[in-house]
Design goal:
The complex is a heterodimer of chains A (about 525) and B (about 375).
Chain A lengths: L1 E9 L8 E8 L4 E5 L6 H9 L1 H4 L4 E8 L2 E2 L12 E4 L12 H12 L3 H14 L15 H13 L5 E5 L7 H18 L2 E5 L3 H4 L5 E6 L2 E6 L1 H7 L5 H9 L8 H7 L1 H7 L16 E10 L2 E11 L4 E5 L6 H8 L7 E6 L9 H4 L3 E4 L12 H8 L7 H9 L14 H13 L5 E5 L7 H16 L3 E5 L3 H7 L2 E6 L2 E7 H6 L7 H6 L7 H9 L1
Parallel strand pairs in A: 3-8, 3-9, 6-7, 7-8, 13-17, 13-18, 15-16, 16-17
Antiparallel strand pairs in A: 1-2, 1-4, 4-5, 9-10, 11-12, 11-14, 18-19
Helix pairs in contact in A: 3-4, 3-5, 5-6, 14-16, 15-16
Chain B lengths: L1 H6 L11 H16 L4 H18 L8 H23 L8 E5 L15 E4 H27 L2 H6 L6 H30 L7 H6 L1 H21 L10 H26 L4 H22 L15 H23 L1 H4 L13 H8 L3 H5 L9
Antiparallel strand pairs in B: 1-2
Chain lengths: ~525, ~375
């Protein structure tokens, strides 16, 4: 269906090609998953299939990409629109109209399909994606999972034979991600659509893939059976890590496969337990007391009680719109409480002058770019040093992630580097309380591992850390304590092991495989087996 | 064309009226408002528009815009009155209400006055004038809340479609920009800088623009991959004829509009308007051949649409006719001040504008 013949892509302003020597074929009706670290050319590869590379992004394309017999070099993206459907990470950036039904029809209108065909396909697609109840709704009023389903539906109505997805579940909570993946699986099974998908969150998707394409910078791409590729892949989900550790063959890709093989491991581990985490005891650096916050007509938080102690990493989880970001905002004074109170280091955040507040609490927002408006890394660091020893910020950057050039523009950094820079900027004022909103969005496994190390070190130095995240594996790896929010209320609060193991949506893969044992991560299991 | 007929929304049951019908109706009322300064007739027009909005608006976000336009109208009226009080009025008047201290101005500023006497006549003239403008705004607001401009643009002929998309995208960008400014001001606070004041808003200007630019590039890419801008091949001569016809038509319409709104052009304006409309329409029809687009479930144009558009046209035409017949009632004199009369014919004419409140179908309401 899709063939790459000696494809390489080089952008004008870069020395190394973004993509090199890709020579492979994706057969019709397969779900092919693209894996690889940031900067390995995943998005570029997807772009060559939809025609956006090189028609839209510029750059030089060598070799030939054909989709369903059409050469993407000679066909502009709009001429491939009836063959290739493209959906990105942010569905809101994709929408052209304002209601669900119009959005589903938009692509067909552009292609000039007759009215009765459009009508029939809109109804079919509404049913296929379970959107029938939402047909008249404004797109802005939908939840993240619903929006992503509408985005997929809007390209499905033209009956494309190829679907190209760039991180479709990265921004979604675990439940919404499952919704979207169920739809994709149905498309592959029932309609024979060829799906090409890039995704960092392998634990969510690898079990659905027919083939995995591994891209590594500086090495030729590898296409193969998921289990084979995963055996050698530098990026892999925890269930694969556990399989490698226990020496299971073939490697399990889903929790179900792993459970069937794990009986022996479970017996071996009985009687042992992960080394206990230290319980933080210091006096709290921040206290929310029956905190309620209203955002417009929405009661975003209703009566939240929370105390954060030094040296403790707390994960804040819950579905999109549960009030996680509002709680973080309340702690840094972005939202005034409607009732109840919040104190950070003894101060009332929304009444404290920003220059003083940053010494008590720092927040890295969902998009670290919001925080960065300097022209270069050096300028950014100099601005952050106001009120601190000159050079503090730059030294922090060097400590957290060596090798970021002084002259680089913050917008040109990779996601991981940008997050590190924002973290350094925030830490320059030495706040005892550090808040992070969805820090792993768009991070690959290496950058994530680096972040885990950095946050652990900060907690060991006595910082209190609160991170809002959808990433259950990150929470399992890092957090001492997990708080789950729903509808603005805390529904669970306790040690991570107790909270997540009991919840099907928030349990990490290792916990699901080794239930009812208290294990959360591959690292814990490795340690116990080594001991 | 049987397939197109089947794909239209059914004309029975609760449905949205064709947006074109609402805009024609509202423009009719607005045109009537420009023909009179009689405050009683103007207030009646505004009331009629308000009643229809209350009776037939839906529950979409844009339906709430009527209140905003009402406030805008009142603001315009207020500004007009304030100007009349402080800058005086060219209307000669004898009934002095009060006198403000006059600012002495040099000789070269002759004719300009700041402060001074405030007369009943001057205030009345300003009030009538402001009220006319406010009524016009209220009519536009009524159309806006009854049919979203985006839906109106969807019904544009194929040749205008791309321009329409640009307008729609621009309209959705305004709220996004506001959200960006808010987010970045919050981020300034996180960096320990003040988040209030003009300087704070200005300093986020560049990042906001960068963000807007990135978003438009992303949207353009998304639209391209979804087939936006596909065209059919047309002969060169046809393309030239299209351009010439459209341009000539638009020029004609502009001229005619000028003629109709000024006093002198009543004779030649109407034929020029019709010719211009015909030329522009032909141009649009020819231009539509370049576009391969089809339309999903277009709104039908049935009896309620005819009645709605017709009632607006009738109000406009009858008001224009009566205003010529009975100038005293439609433009009450302010020198000397008189109590404006409200002739029965005018009342009946304006009340014709209420037809859509009964003829238009009720819009579908959602539980959510």
């Amino acid at each position: 269906m899709i063939t790459f013949e000696q494809v390489s892509v080089r952008y004008a302003d870069s020395a190394a090609p973004a993509l090199d020597g890709v020579d492979l074929t994706v057969p019709e009706g397969e779900l092919c998953l693209l894996v690889g670290p940031s900067g390995s050319g995943k998005s570029t590869l997807l772009g060559t299939v939809s025609g956006l590379v090189p028609h839209f992004t510029g750059g030089v394309l060598h070799g030939r990409v054909t989709v369903g017999g059409r050469d993407t070099r000679e066909h502009r993206p709009r001429d491939l629109a009836d063959l290739v459907g493209t959906v990105g990470q942010d569905p809101l950036a994709h929408f052209v109209t304002d209601t669900v039904e119009d959005e589903l029809a938009y692509g067909m209108e552009s292609l000039g399909l007759p009215g009765d065909v459009m009508r029939r396909r809109v109804e079919e697609t509404l049913d296929l994606l379970g959107l029938a109840d939402l047909r008249d709704r404004a797109l802005g009023s939908l939840s993240g999972g619903q929006q992503q389903r509408v985005a997929i539906g809007s390209v499905l109505t033209v009956h494309p034979r190829v679907l190209v997805l760039d991180e479709p579940t990265s921004a979604l909570d675990p439940g919404a991600a499952e919704e979207v993946l169920a739809v994709l699986q149905r498309l592959v099974h029932d309609l024979g659509t060829t799906v090409l998908m890039a995704e960092h969150r392998l634990e969510r998707v690898v079990q659905y893939a027919d083939q995995v394409l591994l891209l590594t910078p500086g090495a030729p791409p590898v296409l193969g059976e998921p289990a084979e590729v995963m055996a050698h892949s530098p990026v892999h989900p925890p269930v694969v890590g556990l399989g490698r550790l226990a020496g299971w063959r073939p490697l399990p890709l889903s929790v179900r496969d792993a459970r069937r093989k794990a009986a022996a491991l479970r017996t071996e581990l009985t009687g042992r337990a992960p080394s206990p985490t230290a319980v933080a005891t210091g006096s709290p650096v921040a206290v929310a007391d029956r905190l309620a916050v209203r955002r417009g007509p929405v009661h975003a938080l209703r009566g939240v009680d929370l105390a954060l102690r030094p040296g403790e990493i707390t994960a804040l989880m819950g579905r999109n719109g549960a009030g996680k970001s509002t709680l973080l905002g309340g702690l840094v004074g972005l939202h005034a409480p409607a009732s109840g109170s919040v104190r950070v280091g003894g101060r009332v955040p929304h009444r404290t002058r920003p220059a003083e507040l940053i010494r008590e609490v720092g927040l890295v927002p969902q998009d670290p770019r919001d925080l960065l408006y300097g022209e270069s890394v050096a300028a950014e660091c100099a601005a952050a040093d106001a009120g601190a020893e000159p050079g503090t910020c730059r030294a922090l950057v060097e400590r957290l992630l060596p090798g970021i050039a002084d002259t680089a523009h913050p917008r040109d950094l990779s996601e991981g580097q940008r997050l590190t820079l924002a973290l350094a900027v925030v830490l320059t004022a030495r706040p005892p309380l550090l808040l992070l909103d969805e820090p792993t969005r768009g991070l690959d496994y290496a950058a994530k591992a680096r972040l885990v190390e950095v946050l652990r070190a900060l907690a060991a130095e006595g910082h209190a850390v609160l991170l809002a995240t959808h990433d259950v594996e990150l929470a399992a790896e890092l957090a001492h304590r997990t708080v789950i929010l729903a509808e603005g209320e805390i529904v669970a609060d306790g040690p991570t092991a107790e909270v997540v193991v009991s919840s099907p949506a928030f349990a990490p893969q290792v916990a699901k495989v080794l239930a009812p044992g208290p294990w959360l991560t591959v690292g814990q299991v490795a340690e116990a087996m080594g001991a | 064309m049987s397939s197109t007929a089947r794909s239209t929304r059914p004309p029975t049951g609760p449905r949205q009226l064709h947006p074109g019908a609402w805009w024609l109706w509202a423009l009719g009322l607005g045109a009537a408002a420009t023909r009179t300064t009689n405050p009683a007739i103007l207030l009646l027009l505004a009331a009629v528009a308000g009643y229809v909005v209350a009776a037939r608006r839906g529950d979409a976000p844009w339906s709430r815009s009527y209140g905003a336009f009402l406030r805008l109208g009142l603001l315009v009226l207020g500004i007009r009155l304030v100007f009349a009080v402080f800058l005086g009025s060219p209307i000669p008047g004898t009934h002095v209400l009060f006198a403000l201290p006059e600012v002495p101005l040099p000789a070269w500023a002759q004719g300009v006055r700041i402060g001074g006497r405030v007369t009943v006549e001057g205030l009345l003239a300003a009030l009538y004038d402001g009220l006319r403008l406010a009524t016009l705004l209220i009519c536009v607001g009524a159309a806006n809340s009854l049919a979203s401009p985006a839906r109106l643009l969807r019904t544009l002929p194929g040749a205008l479609y791309e321009a329409g998309v640009a307008v729609v995208v621009a309209m959705t960008f305004a709220p996004n920009l506001v959200a960006d400014v808010r987010r970045l001001r919050a981020a300034r606070r996180l960096r320990g800088r003040a988040d209030k004041g003009v300087a704070a808003v200005l300093s986020v200007g560049l990042p906001v623009l960068e963000g807007a630019l990135e978003r438009s590039v992303a949207l353009a890419a998304a639209m391209d991959t979804r087939g936006f801008g596909r065209t059919a091949d047309v002969p060169r001569r046809l393309a030239r004829a299209t351009a010439a016809l459209t341009l000539a038509g638009l020029l004609g319409i502009c001229l005619a509009a000028y003629g109709l709104l000024t006093a002198g052009g009543a004779g030649w304006a109407l034929p020029v308007l019709l010719l211009g409309l015909a030329a522009a329409f032909a141009g649009l029809l020819l231009g539509g051949r370049r576009s391969v687009r089809t339309r999903y479930r277009p709104d039908p144009w049935a009896l309620p649409e005819w009645l709605t558009a017709g009632s607006g046209a009738a109000v406009a035409a009858l008001t224009a006719f009566l205003a010529v017949r009975d100038p005293a009632a439609f433009a009450p004199t302010v020198v000397p001040p008189t109590v404006p009369a409200l002739p029965l014919a005018a009342v009946l004419t304006v009340l014709l504008g209420l037809v859509p409140a009964f003829a238009a179908p009720t819009p579908p309401r959602r539980a959510s």
